[in-house]
Specification:
2% helix; 189 residues; mainly beta; five-stranded antiparallel sheet; six-stranded antiparallel sheet; 53% strand
């Protein structure tokens, strides 16, 4: 494993520390008047999501971890599992629905996703930033409502609720941000 000095840890760096895999979220280089310089690092565990604040002196070394990014295609949901296919080898992998979390509602047949792997074990999943979905239910427009100031609730075909502008109605397709679960724009026909 490649080594990093404590002062080389930057946001996004993945390291092996205290027997786990951690990603650096924030870093702050500190040069006190007395003593040696150190790097104050906020770490997030890639497996269970715990957070940790740690100081690394410039002369300390940590193990940098190389992660592999692989493209998969979503096939189907079966019980509490989601089945994906490796686009290179056509091997199938089953992941628990909680691995994806609430964003599993955005998965569509054949959707390309990227899995972050460490030693052939999935660590995290990246969905497309935006998806196009149809609105199945939306409140009617209230006369006198202005488009700039108010949004109304709508239900998407996958069951999720989002706020949309008053001019959007049931049956229309919209583009939704998968990270924020929010309306972006009307989909082009």
């Amino acid at each position: 494993m490649p080594k990093l000095n404590g002062n080389q840890i930057a946001p996004g760096a993945v390291i092996s520390h205290d027997g786990g895999l951690w990603v650096a979220v924030k870093t702050n280089s500190v040069k006190p008047g007395k003593g040696g310089a150190f790097n104050q690092v906020e770490l997030k565990n890639l497996v269970d999501g715990r957070k940790l604040n740690e100081r690394f002196r410039a002369d300390e070394t940590v193990d940098a971890v190389e992660l592999e990014f692989k493209d998969f295609s979503f096939l189907y949901a079966e019980g509490g599992n989601l089945v994906f296919m490796d686009l290179d080898t056509y091997d199938q992998i089953e992941l628990p629905r909680d691995f994806v979390g609430e964003r599993a509602a955005f998965l569509q047949d054949g959707m390309k996703v990227t899995l972050q792997m460490h030693e052939a074990r999935p660590i995290s999943i990246r969905l497309p930033q935006q998806v196009t979905l149809e609105i199945v239910e939306a409140d009617p427009v209230v006369k006198g409502q202005t488009a700039a100031s108010s949004y109304k609730p709508a239900v998407l075909e996958n069951g999720l609720r989002v706020l949309v502008p008053p001019f959007i109605g049931a049956g229309e397709k919209i583009v939704v941000d998968t990270n924020e679960v929010s309306y972006l724009r009307r989909a082009e026909a």
